[in-house]
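Here is one chain, start to finish.
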Amino acid sequence: SYSFCTLLVMAFSTQDIPQDVSDSWHEVYNAFAEAEDELNIKDLGKCLRAAGQCPTNEQLQTMEEDVQGEPDADQSTRISWAQFERLMVSCMNDVKTEEELRESLRTFDRDQSGYISTAELRYFLTTLGDALEPDEMNELMNEAQTAGCFDSAGVNLSIDEFVKRIMPPLPGQ
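Its structure:
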């Protein structure tokens, strides 16, 4: 069984995605699906993030424009499962390498200790650029805590441990 992060760096087409991964995406899709088992476009970002993707606001806007069709009775556009699956695959093509992610995180490591203050990280990720919503940030911190990415005091996040947990090595490495 593949980990989700491994799949992210493999850039699959929809036919190449293992069935268990497709099933997990479908589960997330169904959790957000509304009328006629279709996803309301206003929930696209939340659904993609719940499925493990991290699209920027610009990427989300482009995706929404790509799937825009005729609005239904409540003036919203719906996304089919097939459209959602294609969007998931398109998200996977924008993945950074382990080293790029590590370098990005090191910009927050002011004292070059290999750790980032969770308060600083929370501030940066919820206020700058494509800011995370508070509930998304809480989920990220909970996952990092569960994965053992914090120092013994639980105050600072280990950059290397965090990157290892979210970006496992490419297959064959």
